[in-house]
Amino acid sequence: MYTILSSEILGYNTVQYFSLGTWASLHYLSGCVDGVMPAVNCTGPPQRHVALELWESGWQDPDWLAKADFLGSERAVQTSGSMGFSGVEGMFVMGRTRQNALERSGLHLSYYGNFNASWFNPADYAPHVSEVNMSKLLTCAESNPPGAQNYIQATGDADGVETRNGVIVYKCWQEKWWVAPACRNNPSSCIAVITLRGWGNREISQQAFFHNMPLAIASALEFPEYVELNVQHQSFLFWWTPDSTFVEYDAVLVEMPPWNPSEQKQGILRSSMKQSMLTTGTSPILETAADRAWGLARALRLSDSNVNDLLLLSVQNGDDYYAAACTWLKANQHVWDEWVPDKTKCSIGRGMVNSQGDFVTSRADAVDCTICPAGRASTKSSDSRLCTKCTPGFYQGTFGMSECNLCELGTMAVEEGAIQCDQCRLGEYANRTGMSFCYRCGAGSGQENLWTTSQEIDAEGESVVIKLQGAVSESYCHCDSGTFLWEGRCEVCMEGASCVGADRLELLPGYFSREELPGDVYNCFDERICPGGPAGTCAAGRDTSSVACADCKEGFREGNDMVCEACGDGDHAFFSMVVVVIIGASGSSGGSAVMAAGCQQLISIVQMLTVVKRFDIGWREPLESVLFSVEVLSFDVDMLSVSCVTQPGPVGLFTLRALMIPMLVLVALGVHLCYLLCTRSKTFQMSNLLRTIGSIVLVIFIILFSMLLAPYQCNEHPNGKMTLKRYKTVYCNGADDHLAMLLIGGFACSMPIIFLVVVTWTVMLELPRRIARSDTQFLAACGFLIKRFRPGMEMASVFFLIRNACVALCPVVSNRPGQLLMMSIILYVNTVMVAFFQPWRFLICNVLDNVLLGGMMVILILGSIAVQESVPQEMSTVALVFLVLMGLCILGSICYGAYKYFQQKYRKQFRYFLCHQKNAAGSMARLLKMELEKRLPGTKTFIDCDDLNDLTRLFSYVGQDTQTFLVLCSPDILTRKWCVGEMVTAKANGVNTMLLTWPSFVFPDETFIAKYPTMVPDITELTKYGIGLEDVEDAFRWLTTVPHQPLPEQISPTSTHFMISSLVSDGRSSPIPKSTHQIQFDTNFPVLVDPANSEAVAAAMVLASLLKPALLGSNLPLPFIQLSGVEVPHEATRSLLICSSGCFKSEQLQTWLLEASCLPECCMIPVITEEAFEMPSEAFFMELQTTSKLTDNQLQLFVMVIRALFQEIAVVFVPQSYASTHQDLQLRAKQAASRLIANLQPLEQKVSKLQSRFGEQSSVEEIWRARSSMMVTKGSEEPEDCNKELTPTEYSDGAYFPRDVVSEAL
Question: Membrane spanning segments where (predicted)?
């Protein structure tokens, strides 16, 4: 009925839910999720708003009352009293059973007294237990009826209960029926009472005991069986009303003794159950959201007869509740008309509206009520209410309120209907409540926009000014931030000043203004000079009358930390320090080149950092202190504490700085003269003096040049005035002191420019001419320019000087982005140049230079970010990290240089340095290297093809990294300029030297020395390495005094053993014997070599040594050098022929080849060991016929042997080659081993085939000309039929090989 009325009559959208129960409905209407407590889940708003037929026993339950108290009146459900009828639970009797008893005996079974079995027999009129279908009942264990413990306590009937598993339960007959004492003797005759899952068992069991009622109670399986059994027997049941389930069977409640609350509290349930008033519940928001729906719910009232009529109608309509309600409402409009609220009678919080929804003041114009919105109040008007707008000065921000509120102090409401009062804006105030406007600060002054309202508060001990809206009095009016109160007016604050408000001005750290002109602000560019604070504040010891606190007070001087300190006795000690430094520079020997280069790069980077500091990026601590500390190297004359002696003024101070170069020259000259006087030298050493002066100027060039450019660098101050960056008391106006400094600076700048021009002329023009004349004295004088760089890169000194000049010019650029861009371009160009040309003499110096330049570029990038993004602290931290890394790199390079210095002095890298002529002694040098390293494990022997990667380091290896310098004196070694340069270096550095002289070597005499420049004209190229002709001549004379030992005329393993022993003992062992008993190893693998060719023998010994490990594990014998005069072993299976220039003219080699051609199993492979080797030509064989001691048959066989020999592909093994490193020779030895291990055809078989082809009558010429199957060298004529067998492929060593063989090898 409520759904129909609220939707069809009141027009609400209503959704209906059934069978929620009282407990769930209370929770739903309180906003609890899914109708469940705890109360913390009741967060609302409720989604269900009306609940009907709430049982009083539910909402009066103590648990619910506690939860409702927790929720509060704004969230808990509201109840509206009785709905006009009540609900009750108990035992009911059906109409048929009741009527049967009345008709048969007049017994009223609706009264408990008529059930007493002592007087009556009610079982005669009702169905018995025996008539009930037992299969539709639950067992007592399944239904578990409650109340057994309470039953035994209230009745003492021990036979009615039993104990199971320690729990007292009802004792059931046939496990399904609890039988009352009145019929316990005959349970089947008891009246059957059907309930549902033990419901009502507690009450009925006690009532049956106390009133002697012959009842038996059982529980149906489920609700359908419960209804079915009770409808079938129409007897007694436990049920409640109102309900429509059994209404058509005229079920009547059995009247028990009246409800006795005292017995009920004791658990005695003999009396009837308490009737429960049924009420209506509404959600707490319903009255506001839908007042008429709320009014309908509270007004709905029904009598018991009305309820019964409705229940019957629902049954008659097939349980169609909607149809039953609709039928009843149509028939009883006179009843529900009183429930429907009047539309125009508005409740509190609402007001009348017309049909358009507009608020009206007359009920005659009203058609409905609506809630008053924010900005209005619900006011009483006759028997209804109006929604009236709040007047100016009042507000209402909540819906459904009955009055408006006054605006508080500091707020205002300008118009009617304000939902809130606005705070007075900045610069305004309201000093009364209920105001509709705010007063303006500074009204009538013409500066109203510069005034604000603010308040000074104490925040953690610090005074802070905050702006304040909603000011409540005029005392909050002050000048706005960015302005300060001066002579009654608000003046705009300049850059560098902090006007936080409250009429105060404070200078930021690094800024200054005079006390009489606080708004005239200067930038001090250093917080240590101007600490900030009130106007007229300078750091301690500084003159407040000077521009921007630039000068110290009289009697004070500026220290390194920018603090003015009192003058002391030690302020003139710098003169002596300068003298000591220059004397040390003049007398030093240069030390390690790496350490010197590292120190020089350190000074350059420090000076670059000094220039970067002048960009005024605004670095933060601790980087600021680090950059300030490096300015010590700026050689500022202020370090002389001139201000403690006199006050020269800015012009005088700049003049002193401009005269630095002349003063340094004079000091250096004086020190040099003193040095000459002390040493009693009569020679004026101009080169040393020039080198000293040049080194000093080169070191301080950046700072010197940048100091002279000071008059061209200006700073602009917040007040619009400009002063010099370096001389802050001089205004940049082109007049007075500034004009004088411009003239002096322009003249002084010519000195570094002249120095740059002279250096450029010297390096580009004069130096090449002096090198051509071998003027080593000139090179010594220019050593400060060129010794840092490797030969050929002398121009790098000019480049670096130009770079330094450009770096010094960077601060002249007027803005920071331009300065950073210019410096970045310089560093980028410098980095590319160093990376591409690698000008420094040592690789580590090139690497260090690029690392330092990279670090400088990172610092510049960080500076750019700090300027643009205003995050100097973060960028300063990162820049400091890179600065530390750069310092560690410099320190590492210096430590590395020191390590190399001591290593070169006490532990040389190379035990021996082999100075040799490659084409005359290359193989011998390789043999010596292998044997020396084998004899002295753990040592290294220098040979250029293995150990020389940088030609510019050749002489440093000799002078610094070598313990013993061994010269292999082949006949023409003195004509090789590099070998001569190595000898000069060894002599100059006192390296222990030994000579191994070839038999044909002749020591140089004075005639040779005099003619040497014409014999070797390119010797002058050594001048760029500091080696002149005089040094060469002295070295030649020195050679005659060096210990030497002769090389044997014939090299053999035995002579080599003695020679190595002699070298290892530094020549102190007995000399090598000219003839010794040669040990002949008895193996089947001879290596045939021309014994008269020492280079060929050395190559053979190198090859044999490398072959031995490669042949391990094979079945082949180990190779040995065939000694002169010994026959080839008859059991030889493998053999190598060492092919050297003129080897086939050797009678010994001819004999060995003829012997080998007769051995049945000897397989031979030719090995080419000299690049100059040529195949025997026809002219060679013609010459051989006239000079050889061989007979014609032997000569014919010799030619066939050569032809047969070169049917095998020759192995190229040239130790003399510059490309033949140890690894390359090992690879070629492995290739030769793989050839030897493979199946080879014996030389004897190849010769036999040739003999059968040509016969014995063929001449040598015929046999040689028919050489189609021979291998040919590059340049020889290829036979016509060669292409049929082989397609030649050119090989890099000068030979041709079959294409398929080359492909297979690749």
Answer: 654-677, 689-712, 739-764, 795-814, 820-840, 847-867, 879-899
Q: Residue 90 pairs with which residues in a beta bridge?
A: 239
Summarize pLDDT for 719-761 with one digit per residue, the tens: 888 888 888 888 888 888 888 888 888 888 888 888 888 888 8
- Beta-carbon contacts of residue 489 (< 8 Å; ≥ 6 apart): 445, 447
Residue with tokens 């090992």: 1226
C-alpha 443/C-alpha 448 separation (Å) is 6
pLDDT tens digits, 1098-1109: 999 999 999 888
Q: 3-state secondary structure string, 687-703? A: HHHHHHHHHHHHHCHHH
Segment (H or E) for 1121 = strand 1120-1121
3-state SS, residue 441: coil
Name residue 716's beta-bridge partners. Answer: 722
Cα separation of 362 and 664, whole Å? 109
Confidence of residue 915 (pLDDT cuts 50, 70, 90): very high
**Using 50, 70 and 90 to split pLDDT, how confident is the model at 211?**
very high
Residue 416: CB atoms within 10 A of its CB come to 16
92 — pLDDT class (breaks 50, 70, 90): very high
Closest CA to 915 of 996, 811, 988: 996
C-beta of residue 281 within 8 angstroms of C-beta of residue 22: no
Q: Would you state the structure tokens that stand for residue 515, as one six-digit string? A: 């006390």
β-strand pairing of 483-486 with 489-492: antiparallel
* DSSP 8-state code for residue 9: I
Report how far residue 957's alpha carbon sits from residue 953's, in angstroms, rounded to the nearest whole number. 6
Residue of 802, 798, 892, 882 lying closest to 845 (CA atoms) = 892
C-alpha 86/C-alpha 518 separation (Å) is 91
SS3 content of the chain, % helix, strand, coil (to 5): 45, 15, 35
> What gap in Å lies between CA 1022 and CA 1033, rounded to an integer?
13
- 795-809 and 816-837 helices cross at what angle (nearest 10)? 170
Per-residue model confidence as pLDDT tens digits over 1130-1175: 888 899 999 988 888 888 888 998 888 888 889 999 999 988 888 8
Q: Give the closest residue to 696 by CA, choosing from 633, 628, 614, 612.
A: 633
Q: What is the DSSP letter of 23?
A: H
Q: How many angstroms separate the CA atoms of 6 and 465, rounded?
A: 61
Q: Are 268 and 124 in contact (CB under 8 A)?
A: no
Q: Which amino acid, one-letter code, is at 89? A: E
3-state secondary structure of 738: helix
Supply φ then ψ for residue 658, to 5 degrees.
-65, -25
Sole residue written with tokens 């301080």: 700
Q: Which residues pair with 1298 in a beta bridge?
A: 1288
| CA angle (882, 885, 888) in 5-degree steps | 155
Question: Looking at beta carbons, which pairs linking 644-652 to residues 24 or more positions away fall under 8 Å?
Answer: 644/555, 644/557, 644/567, 644/571, 647/554, 649/737, 650/724, 650/727, 650/729, 650/730, 650/737, 650/741, 651/737, 651/740, 651/741, 651/744
Q: Which of 62, 51, 6 is nearest to 28 (CA)?
A: 51
Compute the residue count for the chain. 1306
Q: Which residue has the higher pLDDT, 215 or 1292?
A: 215
Chain centroid offset of residue 1047 CA: 66
First to last CA, the chain: 105
Of 1283, 1205, 1186, 1199, nearest to 1244 (Cα)?
A: 1205
Say how far apart CA 2 and CA 310 lie, in whole Å: 13
DSSP alpha helix (H) spans, 19-61: 22-29, 56-59
Distance CA 418, CA 395 (A): 5
**Residues whose CB falls within 8 Å of the CB of residue 573, separated by 6 or more in sequence, listed in order:** none
How many angstroms from the chain centroid is the CA of residue 1064? Answer: 57
The per-residue DSSP string of 196-224 comes to ETTTTHHHHHHHHHHTT--EEEEEESSHH
Q: Among residues 541, 482, 545, which one has the least CA distance to residue 512?
A: 545
